[in-house]
Amino acid sequence: MNVCVIGTGFVGVVSAAVFSSFGNSVTGLDIDPAKIEKLKEGIVPFYEPGLKHLLIEQQSHGTLRFTTDYKDAISNAEVIIVAVGTPSSKEGKVELKYVHSAAQSLAPFIQKGAIIVIKSTVPPGTLDTFQKIVEQYSSHIDFHMASVPEFLREGTAVEDILHPDRVVIGASEEIIFDKLITLHAPLNAPVVKLSPESAQMSKYAANAYLATRITFINQLADLCEHNGADIKDVIHAMGFDKRIGHHYWYPGLGYGGSCFPKDVKELAAYSRSVGLNDNLLNHLDRFNEERIPKFLKKYGETVGGWKGKKVAILGLAFKPHTDDMRDAPSIKVIPWLLEQGATVTGFDPKSLEAVPYFIKQHPHATYTDDLSAAVKDADVMMILIEWPEIIKYDFSMVRIKNKKQWIIDTRNQLDQQVIIAAGYDYVGVGR
Ligand code: NAD
In the chain, fewer beta carbons within 10 Å around the N or the C end? Predict the structure, then answer.
């Protein structure tokens, strides 16, 4: 099939590379010429394990190319996958301006019978608006629409897209289901056929549920800090219940990243717009927003105030194996500490491309991809992200005798007995 993927961000590039590896002829299209130039040269503009190899391989086979030219990309496309960003507005509502502008740009060139697949996370109702825009700017109305939300996780995106738990297809015509099932057949995954609205809602539901799970375990962890229980042990015991399970429990500083915060905000904003103000969704976001300041205050008391403290911030991206900084905890933590008078060194093995952002925003901190340099002489080492480099690091090597030093492990990843035996004061979450 001839496929065009509009938007070559995290989802778009991975989708384009994977669909071309299934023998389709794929064109990746973006309005950002710098990004497209990099992709043409086989350079992935962000860090995602395994993607560069796949990209170069498909480009060398001639089945994957990139362009900024809508006419060139759309004219022959049988399937057009829209994977542009859908960020939050200030009020928490999803911004659909990139989706709508893609509709307007593709409309003049769409071939008869083409299927437009919205892969971006969008609320129910978006397909209708999209269709109206295309109809307004196209010379014909012989095209189809579907919604195929994406569930990949950054850091494991290639693996996730190749081995999805399910492929959710939202459409209203059997012929569209058939064509999209054929496109996704090499994935060998269960296919869930739904209405477009249910498909879109299922994506928001999944992210809101996972954000709820994180918030729930954080609140239990807070209780454990008062009653002597250890949240790790509580999770272990609770997880044997088959209805609950051991997976996906992450007590810490709350959820971040490019999806959970914005998707929870959108669902909450939508619930308010239909008069459902007093529901869980409307409280989740507040709990999450309040968590980092609350913990920084608490940690400040533990270490005897931040003023004059040398603090190593370990992990700048929003999670391991990515350099994505969207809603990363470091973005909140670093300015807070600087404001309190701490000296801050930030470490991340892969996010140094993001450092210009930090240097511009917070020129008084320093940044490095050398972990030993970051922690040297530090009073406080604060683990924000569980990069393997950080959690496997031998902190005893940099312990300074007779100096009070703290390790704040916001991911509960280190063996606290080992850290204490090395002479540090250990602080976890819910322990
Ligand atoms: P991104 O911000 O990394 O990339 C979006 C790309 O779209 C950018 O390169 C931008 O230049 C391009 N773009 C914007 N407007 C355009 C237009 N009119 N024409 C062509 N290109 C345009 O976004 P992302 O993280 O890949 O997310 C894309 C969508 O997928 C979002 O709706 C997101 O919620 C959803 N999603 C993301 C993830 C994830 O982990 N990142 C996972 C599942 C779903």
Answer: N
Residues with CB under 6 A from ligand 1: 6-12, 29-32, 35, 83-86, 98, 101-102, 105, 120-121, 150, 152, 154, 258-259
Above 90 in pLDDT, residue 310? yes
CATH for 425: 3.40.50.720
Tell me what pLDDT residue 266 has.
97
DSSP structure class, residue 110: P
Q: Are residues 202 and 184 in the same domain?
A: no
At 362 the pLDDT is 75
Give 219 Cα–ligand 1 centroid separation in angstroms: 32
Distance CA 302, CA 299 (A): 5
In this predicted structure, the answer to whether residue 131 has a pLDDT above a threshold of 60 is yes
Distance 336 CA to ligand 1 centre (A): 29
Specify the pLDDT at position 4. 98
Question: Which residue has a Cα nearest atom 1 of ligand 1?
Answer: 9
132, 303, 318, 404 from 86: Cα distances, Å: 19, 40, 18, 46
Q: What is the pLDDT of residue 96?
A: 98
User: For residues 142-179, b (16+ Cβ closer than 10 Å) or e, as one string?
Assistant: ebbbbbbbbbbbbbbbbebbbebeebbbbbeeeebbeb
Q: Which atom of ligand 1 is nearest to the CA of 120?
A: 32
Task: Give the number of the atom of ligand 1 that is nearest the alpha carbon of residue 258.
Answer: 41
* Whether 259 is catalytic: yes
pTM: 0.94
Instruction: State the catalytic residue, choosing from 259, 325, 414, 429.
Output: 259
Q: How confident is the model at residue 352 (pLDDT cuts 50, 70, 90)?
A: low
Task: Answer yes or no: do 30 and 104 share one domain.
Answer: yes
Tell me, in angstroms, the distance from the centre of ligand 1 to residue 258's CA. 10
| pLDDT value for 356 | 61
**Are 243 and 378 part of one and the same domain?**
yes
Domain span at residue 346 reads: 195-431
Query: In the chain, how many H helices and how many E strands?
Result: 17, 14
